[in-house]
Amino acid sequence: MSQTATHTIREGAFGNGTHLSCRACGAKSPLGPFYACMECFGPLEVGYEYPTITREQIEAGPKNIWRYQPLLPVPVDVASYPNTEPGYTRLIDARNLARELGLRKLWVKDDSGNPTHSFKDRVVASALSATRELGLKVFACPSTGNLANAVAAAAARAGIRSVVFIPHDLERPKVITTAVYGGTLVAVEGNYDDVNKLASEIAGEEEGWAFVNVNVRPYYSEGSKTLAFEIAEQLGWRLPQQIVIPVASGSQLTKIDKGFTELGKLGLVDATDYKVYGAQATGCSPVAQAFRDGHDVVKPVKPDTIAKSLAIGNPADGPYVLDVARRTGGAIEDVSDEEVIEGIQLLARTEGVFAETAGGVTVATLKKLIATGQLDPEAETVIINSGDGLKTLDAVADRVGPKVTIPASYDAFVKAGLQ
């Protein structure tokens, strides 16, 4: 047992997690409600001591993220507590889209099939476990929408209080699909970075609050590794050669890379080379700009894009995204709002998958990477669709609809040339 301020942490509360490690200086900290290094104020992440883990052990687990419990900072009995049981979403063999873009082999990891229809259910489930184990009582977050949905739903399922902070001009569907769960929803005047700053201030002042992407962020972010685990398992326990990932804070991209690396080190897959590509909307593309300019520092920007779920002007993991892209031989690109809309329609038309704007960013970026020769069309490629298009209907509302309106008669049908 170990002790935090007023709560005793039980043995095994964080599974095979043994410590927190600073991503900047490497200093180690004990497991607890900490997120900034005491030595250099750098960001912390969970470090592990793994036992032998086999494919058979994982495959015998439940068809959700808890099949990877030994690889996450969660206890062995995590599945016994009420949670939304996210994960194990489909990996689509995207033959039609591949043919249209001139790719030999393309897969779409479609995370719109999660309980609240985005990948955020994964990270929230991991954060919820940490919140419970740390004895925190309020489940909270600043959010651009998808995280708000996931936090509100997970809190309702777990029977704890939620308080969610969102920008005042968030898409209406995301507001409704957060408020419906009955928690406290707070609209804040300003953009996401303003909301995030307020959340950080509250987290520093209020006891017992778990801001999933602030003071329990080290545990929260580990949930994104399950995307890497599932992709590898669904490919028959191997790594793709290339992967394109949307970038907001950048945490998803860095944790997918971490997941692939861990699988290789544990011998669950052959540690083959892979390239990681990041996708941003031009109206909020600080990481893509830094990559193009050859900079290691990401200069904050004021977001102006329809891809609100990616509209984080000061991305916390931006420098680490640059590191991953450069280390793996990938790239970070951005696309215009017009290209985003075209990307949404292209994926829907070719594969029957209706993506939200973040998915449109990823598809459009894939297309651009091929056109500019940065991505190898002969290499097996995976792209991430992180959310459902029903959340961002306004993006395509004026682009689609009935081709024709006719009277209810066969003659009208013929006259319209619909045979």
UniProtKB/TrEMBL annotation:
Where on the chain is N6-(pyridoxal phosphate)lysine found, per UniProt? Answer: 120
- InterPro entries in UniProt: Ser/Thr_Dehydratase, Thr_synthase-like, TrpB-like_PALP, TrpB-like_PALP_sf
Enzyme superclass (EC): lyase
- What Gene Ontology molecular-function terms does this entry list? L-serine ammonia-lyase activity; threonine deaminase activity; threonine synthase activity
The cofactors required by this protein are:
pyridoxal 5'-phosphate
CDD domains documented for this protein: Thr-synth_1
**EC numbers for this chain:** 4.2.3.1
What highest taxon heads this organism's lineage? Bacteria
Q: What GO biological process terms does the UniProt entry carry, in alphabetical order?
A: isoleucine biosynthetic process; L-serine catabolic process; L-threonine catabolic process; threonine biosynthetic process
Tryptophan synthase beta chain-like PALP domain segment(s): 86-387
Keyword field: Lyase, Pyridoxal phosphate
Q: Determine if 4Fe-4S is one of this entry's keywords.
A: no
What is stated as this protein's family in its record? Belongs to the threonine synthase family.
Q: What is this protein called?
A: Threonine synthase
Q: What is the lineage of its organism?
A: Bacteria, Bacillati, Actinomycetota, Actinomycetes, Propionibacteriales
